[in-house]
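thread: overnight batch results

M.L. [08:02]
morning all. the overnight job finished for the chain we discussed friday. pasting input first so we're all looking at the same thing
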Amino acid sequence: MPGPGPHLMYTLAMGTGMMHLSRGAFTSHHCLVYTLNAFLGPDLGSFCEWLAQTSSFGRALGSKAMDYVHDPVYYVLILGAPLCFMYSKLSRILLQAGFLPTLPGVHLKPKECLYLIAAGSLSHFFLDNLFEENGHTKMLVWILSTGWWQGAAPLDFMSVLIVGLLCSVLLASFIYINR
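M.L. [08:03]
and the structure it wrote out:
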């Protein structure tokens, strides 16, 4: 499974392409919700497990979340409804604040957000399947920053900091360009 960087770059590129091909029907709001759901969405359990790796309760909770959420269908069934309402509300707030304005000036509806959540989940697993080898090759272990490990995930603070910084710059640049 690739780390968050490839998920982010792939979906931002796909979303930007859809923005240009749709001539305004697919806006920067659509692209942002799509990207966020492919970026960390189904790997949320492993991210929580990594954050709480010093606590046995946190690891167990993250592991259980990973069992249920790291699936293209269960992610949408379990987290789809809460996320679609949250993204719809966030879209309204971003629109009123002047960030990522849409051409017709209308925020995303919950139904649109649910479709984008499903599309982001499918895109996430598309990339995961391209890189799937059960994490047993040295190269795959080297490029992983999220995923499933036997035991605790290796904690390399500088790698997490660099990948986080690069992903933040990429998202901030997207928002700046589409303002």
